[in-house]
Specification:
It is a single chain. The chain starts with 7 loop residues before the first strand and ends with a helix. It has a single domain, classed as Alpha-Beta Barrel (TIM Barrel), CATH 3.20.20. Helix 4 links the parallel strand 4 and strand 5. By secondary structure, it is an alpha/beta fold. The protein contains 12 helices and 8 strands. The longest helix is centred in the last third of the chain and has 16 residues.
Length: 298
């Protein structure tokens, strides 16, 4: 991948499981192929939505292999790189390169929230471990680590760091990154309910979640906004927004998988410590999903 490739809608894919909670590779292959057929520009595996923290290293590598075989050279497969230790993360990055992945999404360490000297050393090790194009994932809400535009500038000394997934929840950060770095890094929106706000201030891509269930609508709203067709974009976004907000709460994995199950694209199985929704909680979400799908735009 090159910097120009970090654009468009890039699904952060869910990981499908059998009832036994083993990875369902047949469903995974069909799913990523379906996303590409519906206009997605890449496949981001092993992210937070993919329940990467519950996957063993060998499972992660096999997931990357399945994705690569399913999409071939049509779009890049991007590996989410995270672990408890820097060594674990570097190992996964090297294995992703060996599989043939086109890029890496680089996360801060699990659990430990270091100072900038430590965090930068972690990022430096991963980005420098391969020649693959890298996307820095900034999500202070989920990971407690906020990389400032100035710190992104320090990391941009790596020639293969090409983009940042911005999930701070503040669209002003998109402007701040572009003010500090110009066009050095492509900025991709990382929260589903901020895409229409992020594009006008400079975001050129979207690492999306609800796209797992609704790729046609996801690609359409992105393209309408990118092309400046704001009236049509706003109308579609208004319909989509109650579902997009499911991506921004602690149970986002369970919620997005439930939407997938309602549109016939997988089941709602998740790995502990997550548990599938049940009772009133499940029924309330299902009512919302079904109400939105009942008035789904043609």
């Amino acid at each position: 991948m090159e910097q120009r490739d970090w654009q468009g809608v890039l699904p952060a894919i869910t990981t499908p499981f059998h009832d036994s909670l083993a990875v369902d590779h047949s469903r995974l292959a069909k799913h990523v192929a379906w996303l590409v057929q519906n206009g997605c520009r890449g496949i981001v595996a092993l992210g937070s939505l993919g329940e990467a923290a519950t996957l063993e290293l060998d499972e992660k590598v096999r997931i990357l292999e399945t994705c690569k075989h399913a999409v071939g050279d049509r779009v890049p497969v991007i590996a989410g790189i995270a672990g408890l230790s820097t060594a674990q993360s570097v190992d996964l990055a090297k294995r992703a390169a060996a599989v043939g992945c086109g890029g890496l999404m680089v996360l801060p360490p699990y659990v430990y929230r270091g100072d900038w000297r430590e965090t930068k050393a972690h990022f430096d090790a991963i980005i420098g471990a391969t020649e693959l194009s890298c996307l820095l994932y900034n999500n202070p809400i989920a990971y407690g680590t906020d990389v400032s535009p100035a710190q992104m500038g320090e990391l941009s000394e790596h020639a293969n760091l090409h983009a940042v997934k911005e999930s701070s929840g503040d669209v002003r950060r998109v402007t701040a990154i572009r003010e500090a770095l110009g066009d050095r890094l492509n900025v991709l929106a990382g929260m589903d309910d901020a895409i229409l706000e992020s594009i006008p201030v400079g975001a050129v891509g979207w690492v999306a979640g609800l796209v797992n269930a609704l790729p046609v609508e996801s690609v359409r709203v992105f393209e309408l906004a990118r092309n400046g067709e704001w009236e049509a974009a706003r109308a579609l976004y208004d319909w989509f927004l109650p579902l997009l907000r499911l991506d921004t709460v602690p149970k986002f994995v369970q919620l997005i998988k439930l939407v997938q199950s309602e549109v016939g694209q997988g089941n709602a199985s998740v790995r502990p410590p997550r548990l599938s929704l049940e009772g009133d909680e499940r029924e309330q979400v299902l009512a919302l999903i079904r109400e939105r799908l009942a008035c789904r735009p043609a």
